[in-house]
Design a protein that fits this description.
Membrane topology: Multi-pass membrane protein
Helix content: 55-70%
Order of helices and strands: HHHH
Radius of gyration: 22 Å
GO molecular function, one term: transmembrane signaling receptor activity
Structural class: mainly alpha
Strand content: under 5%
Keywords: Membrane, Transmembrane, Transmembrane helix
Distance between the termini: 55 Å
Main location: membrane
Pfam family, one: 7TM_GPCR_Srb
Number of strands: 0
Largest sheet: none
């Protein structure tokens, strides 16, 4: 194992991770995940420096989608200028 280089260890690491993920796929929906609450605690006090994220609500199809895309890009450019 000591003679293996990083380029040889990387695929082995991915294989181990995939095997672990497949083994635990059955329990995926029931497992507790703490990342969400941790991110909320970390990010809740941060002040947003721009309005870009609050202005993006995309409608993906048809004329409404095209108009919404134009509005979103306009808002992004305006926010970047401020």
């Amino acid at each position: 194992m000591l003679l293996m280089t990083n380029s040889m260890l990387l695929p082995i690491g991915f294989s181990i991770e995939r095997l672990y993920a497949l083994k635990n796929a059955e329990n995926y929906e029931r497992e507790k995940v703490f990342l969400g609450p941790i991110l909320v605690i970390i990010l809740q006090d941060k002040k947003r420096s721009s309005k870009v994220a609050s202005n993006i609500a995309m409608v993906s199809t048809g004329q409404e989608g095209a108009l919404n895309y134009e509005n979103v890009t306009r808002n992004i450019w305006e926010s970047a200028g401020n």
